[in-house]
Amino acid sequence: MKYTDEYRDPVTARRLIDKITARATRPIQIMEFCGGHTHAIMRYGIRQTLAPHVRMLSGPGCPVCVTADTDIDYAIALAHLPSVTVATFGDMLRVPGTRASLQQAKADGADVRMVYSALDALEMARQNPARSVVMLGIGFETTAPTIAASLVQAREMGLRNYYVHCMHKLTPPAMRAILDAGEVRVDAVLGPGHVTAITGWRAWEFLPRDYHISCAVSGFEPLDILQAVYLLVDAVETGEAQVANPYARGVDADGNKVAQQLMEQVFQVTAAAWRGMGEIPASGLGLRPEFAAHDARLAFDVPLPEAAPTPQHRACRCGDVLRGVIEPSECPLFGKACTPARPVGPCMVSGEGSCAAHYRYGGTLDG
Amino acid sequence: MCLAIPLRVQRIDGALAEVELGGVTKTVSLVLTPDAKEGDYVLVHTGFAISVLDEQEAQETLALFAELEEASRAVEEQAESDEGQAPEA
Predict the structure, then answer these.
(1) 3-state class of A215 per DSSP?
(2) Residues facing B6 on adjacent strands
(3) What is the extent of the structural domain holding A226?
(4) Could you tell me the residue range of the domain that residue B37 belongs to?
(5) Are residues B9 and B49 in the same domain?
(6) Of A75, A288, A340, B41, which sees the most CB atoms within 10 A?
(7) B38 — contact with chain A (CB < 8 Å)?
(8) A66 CB neighbour count, 10 Å cutoff
(9) How many domains would you assign to chain A?
(10) In this complex, do B51 and A251 lie within 8 Å of one another by their Cβ atoms?
């Protein structure tokens, strides 16, 4: 496949690995923000190959994983309303709320549908005027414009039965929160390629400016990642913090202006609750008053069930995993009480979750 | 969640485009990339093209990899020839 296969060449990968390990004079810690990167890094064995010269740390870039469990409780409560259909991307289905997942709710008779795109949910609303279709708006800057586009289209079509439960989150504030907390040493950041396709790489200029940390925006093929890691190691060694963009085929300085304008038209920045990180100011998106008629939170007054975490949930350390503070294997539940087949925490559920990646592709660096 | 794959735009009809993925034709929205043309490769995320891939930039990255390979080979050949010339003990 074009733009994919040519970035997987094993000989070039070996050359890049040699360059990286030769350049690093001390162990360098690089946080990959994005869960897609975590999976690629594990899948291609990059993490093990680069250790101990470079230690890759997983960040909070898995939208499903950072969704607050009470937001899932709310979605479940909505889905149990007699005239409501909840539409969601597939990876949300199995994420546990405080008591159940959307999949369990569906088994109990709630109307939960998996969609590939927000436009599928829009079409569902058009075809079922007697039902209220609530699209779960999750995701970072990559996904938010697609939900915004669906809302603008719903308004243009006069569709009054299409709603969004808006849980979108912004990536730079979360990166700031991790650095400000200082729980983990981050020498450099592997920038999320598809978030940055929307925001533009200038969105990461605060890293060198405010934290003296370099960022390299990376694609998702092994050579993309290795090239970006080399640039980061080189920047750490020279002591010159900067933003590099080796993913220039898909990302530029200013990003996708059309997508940014759509987000601006539909959303306003709000505080948001991140699982494992608590509330982060100005890190989420809510609907603007102009789109209030499509805001699920305003349309449906649903009481939330009382949260009652089980002992297993209390032992789950997804929050620490999401902040890069511990490796998944350091959680007492990992691979025992918590597996992809019977996940306790969201990091084991999602295709982008760090625990799922570690479970699937295996291995701790120590043994 | 932020997964996006590069697909070739085959046909454009208004704000929609046909792309091909593994032999299957899919329809995606070009609302976020109105400048995309037939023949362009776009990054597709949840049914929307979010970026038009820049062929020239892609070629430059690949050229960089080719240069690296050439330089590494040259170093290896030099090392081998040095080894060959080393006086025997």
Answers:
(1) strand
(2) B43
(3) 1-309
(4) 5-53
(5) yes
(6) A75
(7) no
(8) 28
(9) 2
(10) yes
